């Protein structure tokens, strides 16, 4: 494995507050890696530690196997795209791009060519003479990208770079960023609190909670097999149940929820009878039919619809399976004639899901 | 009812005639500047072309003599000294004031206001009194000379008072807040992410200062320099008390002509010459240091 950035037990404290707590991480060369978490989880501090704006309280930061913990930002072959873009207002677009190239002692005749190349990369040809204030937010964003990318850093750090853009532009830029990253092949470390953004663009995601890594994995791993309740809750939506395991027979686990439902859980060897566990199941994995339907999935319960939210492309139902167990179901709005999406509040329905769609959580 | 209608008609009139409205709002200011600034200026302009009266005042006879008289090594030397001292004061204050303003702007919020308060604190006493205090420190039997002698650093007292250096020091002391406050205002506004971006793009602290911090705080540098330079050129209390007759500045010359010499026309022409030179100097400075934008702002 070719590692560009490695964090070994990195900790950062601000006075009493521990912003980053013993983080161990390996980021591969050419990877689009996202740090995802709610505000205050330490993702931005982690990024700033790699950039060199903060010094770690403990641990080591390696870039290309070299410990850069005590190096100043200008001594690191790392560049940052700031949330606010941080374009120099007194310089033109070309001047902003030139700034880094000149500091890198690029030969004069090469600089102009590289500036053109940078502008072309982000499709801003001919805008070199404009000042940042004359550009739209999306264009400023591109200049910030061009300015950093043209320096060919080992790692490009992006701190919520799309946060200030409107939704439509953000979606466009997501795809553009991803294809740009594939084109230049530079390692991207991307900080975001937007789970959808992280899922769309990343090769791997690290979910952070209270300064620690909650889970690291591909988007599929994180979404399908969240390790903790926090991850399951933060990424997408989940139904949570907890209860006691009442039987483990031929590795088949049955759990009795607090509301008294007997739920079949996926086969595994770690759990024993009597254990208290928590599991989650995604709302879109559930099937809803009229009572007496044809579902042959292990978990089948009759419940009553207590709430219905119509969202256009989908309908969300809240269904009471027992006085204490409510479950949320997302149904795609498929064919209007189909009875499937036309249940109404108060109706009795059969809810079913496959045992393998239950994910047992660590805590 | 009638009154309300009238009010509406008046308001409508003002809305149609925006410049009348603007004139109405500005009239106190126009009155003030007209009576207390423009009128005396015109008066002095007229006086500068008249012959002196016997006991002050003027005699209404036209003459160029007040201007031709100024073209004299004696007066030109005073003008030159005035500009030299003012220029050096400005440079010294930039060097002292910039780090000071920077530190204050970057200080903890609680401290910032206290520090700013300390900067303006000297304004609480008249600069006349503060300048007298400097005399006590600088004179031959003053605080500094006594201290150096008791430490056996020197055997004879140094001549500190009545020198150009004393004026320089006194002016720098009096005008420090004028430099620090505008610098503070522009440094405080400086976006720290831009400094991080500069470092991120490979700029060492020195380059970062030169290429980002200075250009982005240029407005403060310009304002501070002008606020120090212009009053320095016209200063007369400090050079009078700390410079004495040996190091006269043009402010003292003007004061001398209007006061003891009772030559109002020559005092007026000296003022006008000073004003013209300052205007050109400021214009040239803004053009050179500020580029087009600053010039536009100044207009």
Give a structural overview:
The complex is a heterodimer of chains A (363) and B (299). By secondary structure, chain A is an alpha+beta fold. Chain A has helices spanning 43-51, 93-103, 108-121, 137-149, 167-184, 195-201, 219-224, 229-234, and strands at 3-14, 17-28, 32-36, 58-63, 66-67, 78-81, 155-159, 187-192, 204-209, 212-217, 239-249, 252-257, 262-265, 276-281, 287-289, 299-310, 314-320, 326-332, 348-353, 359-361. In chain A, helix 2 (93-103) crosses helix 3 and helix 2 (93-103) packs parallel to helix 4. Chain B is mainly α and 299 residues long. Chain B is built from 14 helices and 2 strands; from the N terminus they run ααββαααααααααααα. In chain B, helix 13 (250-258) packs across helix 14. The model of chain B has no long low-confidence stretch (mean pLDDT 89). Classes of the chains: A alpha+beta (363), B mainly alpha (299). Chains A and B meet through strand 6 and helix 2 of A and helix 9 and helix 10 of B.
Short note summarizing the structure:
In chain A, 23% of the residues lie in helices and 36% in strands. Chain A has 363 residues and is an alpha+beta fold.
Strand content of chain B: under 5%
* Terminal CA distance of chain B: 46 Å
Largest sheet composition of chain A: 6 strands, mixed
Strand order of the largest sheet of chain B: 1-2
| CATH homolog superfamily of the largest domain in chain B | MetI-like
The assembly state of the depicted protein chains is heterodimer
Strand order of the largest sheet of chain A: 6-7-8-3-9-10
If helices are DSSP runs of H or I spanning 4 or more residues, what is the number of helices of chain B?
14
Percentage of helical residues of chain B? over 70%
Number of domains of chain B: 2
Structural class given helices, strands, pairing of chain A? alpha+beta
For the structure shown, list the relevant keywords.
heterodimer; A: 363 residues; alpha+beta; 6-stranded mixed β-sheet; 5-stranded antiparallel β-sheet; 36% strand; elongated; B: 299 residues; mainly alpha; MetI-like fold; two-stranded antiparallel sheet; 77% helix
